[in-house]
Amino acid sequence: MIDPKLTTLLVLVQLENYTKTAKELNLTQPAITHHIKQLEQDYQITIFHRQGKNLLLTTQGEILVKFARRAVALEENCQMALLDAISSVRRFSIGVTTTLSESIVPQVFALYCQRHPETKIVLLTETIQNIVVKLKMYELDWAIVEGSIPQRHYSSILLDTDELCLAISPNHPLAARTSVSLEELRTEKFILRSIHAGTRYLFESALNQHGLSISDLNVLIEIDNVSTIKELVASNLGVTVIARSALREEINDHRLIALSIENLSLQRQINMVYYRDFTHSEVLDEIKQIYDSLHNKR
């Protein structure tokens, strides 16, 4: 179903070289050039312009590539769905933000698949920005995210509410406290998620409301791996701001302590986000039911 010329375009964008693209696709270089020229004639646009040896997309080229990627994703999903229908398998690709991947969410999906052996789930851990891109490209069927994705094409189901807190080591001088002031945060050494993380965005937004920013804090390291951050904090090498739900195991094992941050609003929602034409609402309902059941046991 996919026009071979679009396949050529996507490989060329990836490799940025006509010779390498020809070798990758087992075609001649003139054939690659012909495919690109045909696309330009079909859509009446210029796809590339050169800057020295670099092959750069024009604005129109970027638009064509975006929709070409979406078309390829739809084609792949279609083929997979047809194969699944033949073998009576249901398959879902689901995006989960990094912090949630270390919560009870993976256990929820494992229990769902245990109940429904005919269902196969591919769980992708991404930043919320990448999840939005993959949803737009139809590379994901739905997602579970911190916060929301406010676009008219999507609906959402509130799965849970949570709050961010300051995580410290039991050996930290503040270990006997239950809360910490904003002024005290300035003296701490922070290990934080990157600027692309939803947790980081919420923390920074809350600071901004008090006329503060991340630059007012002493940030030693920025890491995207939540487990690594928790290990460093447990070793008393710094403190971090993290979802309280992501600390349940460490708090129970007395490896970390969670403190509230005074006068800082750090509540967040956890939502299941899906396209409005998603046809398996019963799956979402059962996922929420399992989540609620596990959550209540904690």
Name the average pLDDT: 88
Number of strands: 12
- Flag low-confidence runs: none
The helix content, as a percent range, equals: 40-55%
Give the termini distance in whole angstroms.
49 Å
* CA-based gyration radius: 24 Å
**SS class:** alpha/beta
The major beta sheet can be summarized as: 8 strands, mixed
Q: What is the H/E order?
A: HHHEEHEHEHEEEHEHEHEHEEH
CATH class of the largest domain: Alpha Beta
CATH architecture of the largest domain: 3-Layer(aba) Sandwich
Shape: globular
Q: Determine the CATH topology of the largest domain.
A: D-Maltodextrin-Binding Protein, domain 2
Can you summarize this structure?
With 298 residues, the chain is α/β, with parallel strands linked by helices. The chain has helices at 4-15, 18-25, 29-43, 59-86, 105-115, 128-136, 182-185, 198-208, 226-234, 248-252, 281-297; strands at residues 48-51, 54-57, 90-97, 119-126, 142-146, 154-168, 179-180, 189-192, 218-222, 240-243, 257-261, 267-275.
Written overview of the protein:
- By secondary structure, the chain is an alpha/beta fold.
- It folds into three domains: 4-71, Arc Repressor Mutant, subunit A, CATH 1.10.10; 81-160 and 269-297, 3-Layer(aba) Sandwich (D-Maltodextrin-Binding Protein, domain 2); 162-268, 3-Layer(aba) Sandwich (D-Maltodextrin-Binding Protein, domain 2).
- 43% of the residues lie in helices and 24% in strands.
- The protein is built from eleven helices and twelve strands.
- Strands 3, 4, 5, 6, 7, 10, 11 and 12 form an eight-stranded mixed beta sheet that branches.
- α5 (105-115) links the parallel β3 and β4 (119-126).
- α1 (4-15) crosses α4 and α2 packs across α3 (29-43).
- The N and C termini lie far apart (49 Å).
- The mean pLDDT is 88.
